[in-house]
Amino acid sequence: EHGFGKPEERAYLHAMERLGVGPEDTWMIGDNLEWEIEAPQRLGIYSIWIDVHGDGLPEGTHVKPDRIIRSLTELMPAR
């Protein structure tokens, strides 16, 4: 516990610092458009939205994920 968390930018900055990576080497994957897509994108992090139900982006949203998937398995290399 650090006293801060998503969607605060310092949560992402802290994680990247601890891992020794920058935003250009970081992906954020999640199902919350505000916390896991919009906030990390402000820092230059590649952000992937999981649309598990296949409903698509909510009408009127201004958030534009870098990629949309239905399952984490879509990120695995083809065999």
Describe this structure as you would to a colleague.
- With 79 residues, the protein is α/β, with parallel strands linked by helices.
- It has one domain (9-75): 3-Layer(aba) Sandwich (Rossmann fold).
- It is built from 2 helices and 3 strands; from the N terminus they run H-E-H-E-E.
- It has helices spanning 9-19, 33-42, and strands spanning 27-30, 46-50, 67-69.
- It has a 3-stranded parallel beta sheet, covered by helices on one side.
- Strand 1, helix 2 (33-42) and strand 2 form a beta-alpha-beta unit.
- The longest helix is centred in the N-terminal third of the chain and has 11 residues, at 9-19.
- The protein is globular and about 35 Å long.
**Helix count, per DSSP?**
2
Number of domains: 1
How many individual β-strands? 3
Low-confidence segments, ≥5 residues, pLDDT <50? none
Provide the structure class. alpha/beta
Overall morphology: globular
Mean pLDDT: 95
> Would you identify the CATH H-level superfamily?
HAD superfamily/HAD-like
Biggest sheet architecture? 3 strands, parallel
Strand order of the largest sheet: 1-2-3
